[in-house]
Amino acid sequence: MKVLVVGSGGREHALVWKIYQSERVEKIYVAPGNDGMLELAERVAIASDDIKALADWAEENKIDLTVVGPEKPLVEGIVDEFEARGLKIFGPNKKAARVEGSKVYAKEILNKYKIPTAEYEVFTDPDEALEYIQQAKYPLVIKAEGLAAGKGVVIATNREKAEAAIAKIMEERIFGDAGNRIVVEDFLEGEEVSILVFTDGKHILPLSPARDHKAVFDGDEGPNTGGMGAYSPVPSVTKEVEKEICEKILKPAIKAFQSEGINYKGILYTNLILTGMGPKVLDFNARLGDPESQVILTRLKDDLVDLMEMVVEDRLEEIELEWDERAAICVVLASGGYPIAYKTGFKIEGLEGLARHDNVLIFHAGTRKEGDGFVTAGGRVLGITVLGDGMIDAINQVYECVNEVYFEDMHYRTDIGYRVLDRDY
Questions:
Q1: pTM (whole model) above 0.90
Q2: Angle at 19 (CA atoms; ends 308, 8), nearest 5 degrees
Q3: N or C terminus of the chain: which is more exposed, having fewer CB within 10 Å?
């Protein structure tokens, strides 16, 4: 079969890598992809949000399955367009993807169906928002309603920071129309965790938990990014905690979608926080996480194409997934200045030497082929991913690999995975 992957980042490289392992797949295309994927897939020069052009191309080239990586084409209705033409595609339709496209809509569903989440207020007028925060308790969480590539959330520890966040989102419009409305919600204490499930609209099939690191600097300091690293599994998500999440959040969410007339098929990504009062939802995403996909897919033993077809064809029954018992960790190498202002075009050195390491994978996100090597071409450049015999081994290996790579202004967090080291693992 022929598979088309839509997107161009590290998540899509991980998808291509995993799909390539399927014995059923003869050819993989990726639109628009990046040069780091060329050994596994053929690039197609169509933007990931040019929905009509993608559907035309898939139709003309008799693509058997299309897999959508990023959120924007999902929110804009790529699944609806493909399905209207009888093309098989994996991902939620436009109505379902609204749970990521609008944080206000997602909060309304959570509130209506009494799924645990933080208390919140919604504002369309910056002056009303500024008036509200004068009397609020801090910290507060301020979110742009729409898509902001993972960067639209600010944790404000005091009134001055809250005022600055409101000004940037609603007045300076740093996220464009995504800042038309904001959600201001209570800050919840606890450990964040990413729980992703396959769902055919009726059944759920949970993936192994992962933890993302959004902040740009060590210690979760600085502005949010698209993700600076991740690890899986998450020791704090025991079987008991996972069962509680399924019974109190995931199954009720699927029932809530059904009640709202939403046939949610694809990946439901729930960003949770484990509080002293139990797990609570921070937000929903309608696709695989990045860089969570890099650590989850490297541990998944099952054929991903089989699983995706089971979702698309409403055949997702109660089955058990098989997982590599080793720990996976991904450290993102970013351009200096990301996520704000950064330069590109710097030569990347050291990638060839990583081939001597066992269990290391290099997922390209923002790179461009130049001569015999690669140069930087984005904010997040590479995801160095390692499988290790436990978290300590994985951490040691991944940073050994990271230290062998160099490009000018290279930035990365040095504490990915360290949170679990004080636990029995």
A1: yes
A2: 100
A3: C
